[in-house]
């Protein structure tokens, strides 16, 4: 098990603990002080920031790995957008979990939604240009072949292609991670403490549910594979 996989397992345990704390805070939000709820929100956002900091270190060592991460289930990998969840997903979770936004908050969220779409399109364009400029195969295919052949004698051709991609991809991944964390932070800042708690409950539940479904699906596939 890699050092990041060890970190990620511990991070998920802490994620479950934070979700329990968030759900408890949600239930008593009517009697809690806003400053206390915001303190919890800040700690949870820091928890996510730690994940992206650690993932950035991995990307600097092997950027191809974060495009097909071994620590994710096949379902989680299928949902990836530039090595993580698409930032715009946060707005759908807000809509589902925070129905009591004020008119001012809705205007702010509309502006942020449009800004995020522009940034997402710009990152997609950068990634497409990288593909074209190096005549690159799909990144997941490069990542898998890179991992499979990196230590073999036949890896020279793949290594040359990987080298041309590496520095450009690191920049795209770093900016995508920054966009993800910026969107989450701005959304939390425009909400009350109680609203931000409900938003983060929805985020945590979504993430852990996708992982649970992914683990179940991979286990079923493994059992079917053993039969054959």
Overview of this structure, please?
Helices cover 79% and strands 0% of the residues. The chain has helices at residues 3-27, 34-61, 74-78, 89-97, 103-134, 139-149, 156-190, 193-227. α1 crosses α8. The protein is globular. The model is unreliable at 153-157 (pLDDT under 50).
The end-to-end span amounts to 27 Å
Which class of secondary structure composition applies to the elements?
Answer: mainly alpha
Helix content: over 70%
Note the beta-strand portion: under 5%
Which runs of at least 5 residues are low in confidence (pLDDT < 50)? Answer: 153-157
Helix-strand sequence:
HHHHHHHH
Described by strand count, sense and barrel closure, the largest sheet is:
none
Shape by Cα distribution: globular
Distinct helical segment count: 8
**How confident overall, as mean pLDDT?**
88
Secondary structure tally: strands: 0
Rg over CA atoms: 20 Å
């Amino acid at each position: 098990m890699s050092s990041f996989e060890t970190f990620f397992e511990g991070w998920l345990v802490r994620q479950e603990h934070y979700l329990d704390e968030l759900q408890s805070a949600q239930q008593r939000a009517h009697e809690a002080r806003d400053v206390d709820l915001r303190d919890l929100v800040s700690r949870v956002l820091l928890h996510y920031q730690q994940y992206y900091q650690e993932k950035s270190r991995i990307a600097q060592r092997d950027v191809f790995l974060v495009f097909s991460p071994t620590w994710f289930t096949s379902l989680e990998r299928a949902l990836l957008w530039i090595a993580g969840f698409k930032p715009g997903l946060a707005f759908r979770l807000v809509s589902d979990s925070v129905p009591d936004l004020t008119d001012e908050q809705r205007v702010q969220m509309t502006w942020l939604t449009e800004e995020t779409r522009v940034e997402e399109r710009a990152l997609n364009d950068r990634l497409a240009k990288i593909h074209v400029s190096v005549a690159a195969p799909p990144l997941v295919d490069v990542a898998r072949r890179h991992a499979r052949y990196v230590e073999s004698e036949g890896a020279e051709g793949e290594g040359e292609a990987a080298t041309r991609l590496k520095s450009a991809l690191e920049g795209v991944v770093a900016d995508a991670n920054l966009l993800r964390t910026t969107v989450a932070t701005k959304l939390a800042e425009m909400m009350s403490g109680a609203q931000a708690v409900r938003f983060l409950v929805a985020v945590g539940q979504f993430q852990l549910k996708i992982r649970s479904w992914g683990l179940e699906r991979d286990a079923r596939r493994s059992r079917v594979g053993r039969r054959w």
